[in-house]
Amino acid sequence: MSKHVLKPLFSLVALLGLLALCLGVSTTAVAQTERIVPKAENFLFFVDHSGSMAMSAPSESKSSLAARHDPNKQEKIEVTKEVLKAINNDIPDITFTAGLYTYGPFQEYIGPSPYAKDRLNQGFDGLKTQYDIFGRLTPMGLGLKSLDAVVGSLSQRRAVILVTDGESNIGPKPLPVVQDMYAKYGDNICFHVISFAQTAAEKALVEQIAAINPCTVSADVKDLLDDGKRADFVRKVFYDVEIIPAAPVVQPAPPAPVEEVIVFRNVNFDFDKYNIKPEFAPLLKEAAEIIKARPGKRVVVDGHTCNIGPAVYNMGLSERRASSVRSFLVNEGVPADRITTQGFGLTQPRFDNNTREGRSLNRRVEIRFE
Fold it and tell me: What CATH number belongs to 259-369?
């Protein structure tokens, strides 16, 4: 789970809310703040540097971003440099590890290191634009296999920004390599695509790569020449904006019947897992004590999943997650006959399944009094 996620079960806001419930008063939040958090701890730019990228770019990709070039001779790799620098300049002040690599041939320009805007721009400037085309084929699959060694050396979440014209004409096919990397790293990797594809075959390969995982953000290079569309691409790929509610102001209010709800939104599970992680044990023990202090209340434990995988499988996984929490509570002294479990699979997401952070938060269990 990201270090930026608010983990504690009973935060200051929640404790104040519980106090207000006991005193029979209402709470009103006075303000909200925002913070920007990266969608991954590591971002790797992976650029096709084969002969086809030294050929002329599509005419609609020739714009003022590269106005110093002759538009009749502008090459795809030249447009690539300008677009990547524009993307880099749009990235807000967030902390992550960045790297720059090419394939065709595979080469490290910037090894994984703390992100610095100027350093990354220097790396993009270092990409050669004048080189021989003849015999310089496009080994995308082989390049991805080489990049896998770099990806494997990193910890936490990785994002790969793949710049490609959709060609792959030597070596292993790239699609199975990408699929294998998703299988290996699970929710800790996501491929994004900047596409120069022109032919039907090239576009098909780009679409197939983008369709493997809903986390992928794919854009035609011509769209990234537009300031607004590029800003949207940067936001979807690089960061989320979190809303942080301010502590509530306690105000007198007439007592009213209020259903007590304990929600374990931050008791999350790893991808395709239902075992309770050690860091959540203290929170569940506290929950057990609260439940035991209300012997007249029945308890419902609801399990949920993200949207990756078949619906039938996710339904079973959510039930196993709920049963895992029920077993924990029973071991802590809560009578088994007071607890009912049910699974909802992927049918009731509370967070955005189109983001990695949202999917992580959706793999959750909620507990409520009935």
Answer: 3.30.1330.60
